[in-house]
Amino acid sequence: MKDLKKILAFSAIFALILVGCSKEESGGVDSPGSDTAILQLGPLLNDGATRAAIKQEAQELPECSDEEPGFAQISIEYGPDDTVKEDIIVPILSDDQGLFTAYSEELELPIPAGETTVSVTVTEFVVWTNDGGSPGEVIWVAPIEGSDFADFVDQPVGPNFTFELRAGSKNYVNVDVICYDDRDVNLYGYQFFTITPIPLIEFCIFGNYCTPEGRHYVASYSVNVWESVDGEKGDPIYTDLQNNVEGEGSDAYADPLCFFVPDRLDVDDNEEEYYVEITLLPDTPGYNGGGELIAEGPITVAEIKFFFGENGTLDYYHFQYGCDDGVPPPFGRPEAKRYKACLKYLDSDDEVAGFAYLSLDGTTLQAVTSVFGLTPGEMHPQHIHENASCGDYGAVALALDYNEGGFPVSEIFNGVPFLNYAETIPDVFLPNLEDRTVVVHGKMVDGEYVASEPVACGEFDEY
């Protein structure tokens, strides 16, 4: 998709990667003697690869800063059975290989008599800025073993961050450190603040339940999240996250359920995805059933970023089970067939991007399109076409218009043109939707708006 991050610049989250080193210390430092060993450490801002389930709990983390790292505050234990405990502050240096701690006599560790190595354990590691030659503000910390975000680094500090330091050596050991990006959440009447550790992004869910008679209630629900490839579940990230209502009946209330997922820098936003299941819980006011899976499906990082707003805000995904609006894409009812198309520009001069979704339950089709970059204030015709390729999309098979007539109009949203269309279309007998395309029309040609001119196309895949 053409420069999606440029189009959605207000929603981008950037993570820093600093490469650790394994080399000799530069500068005129004497080699250690045979009865000592010099320990040096390199802070490495972690890339956020997740290897186990993540807990949704608070942790004391510093807010990310553009300030340069100046000092490392290190807590170590060494000697037989870690009998010696020390807290050390040393300057941080850098070269073309990354960051590392400067030489310090306090990190020249004695080797026990009769031994050739000494056991060293790093229990804490904190990075400070340089404030006129002394530590200023904390900008990074190493997660501690057993803490909420320990799973986001290869090796958290703590009892198991232990290694042998050989006599006469000067070792460089990498330490993973993290910080967080503070982002406000749009709560439409209430507000709280959550934190996102880099390189994680935040996704929030809020739900309603409607009785058969049409009365609305705030929903209680649980959420499971997996890593996903091509719409298939992979490793679990969250298991049974619950959002239970407070109060009873029409007085019940709840905040959105928010959680974090990685936004890896080396993976395209349209390729990195997560599989989500939402289950309605029995304590939902007005609901008399048991736990029921009501929505599931994959969501990409690019789709998550569609919920990002300007000025560091975030909208939540809102489902309404049993209500007229139902379960919106990208998730859907388990029994429905779902299809998705990534909408791409047809002319490289047009900065158009978005998604189209279809959910087919029997002969009832729910269609949704969300497109950035179209001509604002104008009606944009859109259709499902017969063929499977945007290179030859063929004849029109079905118009994606409103039941009462007319096509959607692009409007200004968060400073950029945005079209959002959702409609339930009855009595649709159109087979093989995975072999169809969707085309959006309408663009400026020689200073005049031409509603029939194709501007974007996407090829449907079942998901």
TrEMBL record:
The alphabetized list of GO BP terms reads: superoxide metabolic process
Question: InterPro entries from the xrefs?
Answer: SOD-like_Cu/Zn_dom_sf
The source's superkingdom equals Bacteria
Q: Which residues form the signal peptide?
A: none
Provide any one GO MF term from the record: metal ion binding
Q: Which family does it belong to?
A: Belongs to the Cu-Zn superoxide dismutase family.
Q: What is this protein called?
A: Superoxide dismutase
Q: Which organism is it from?
A: Christiangramia lutea
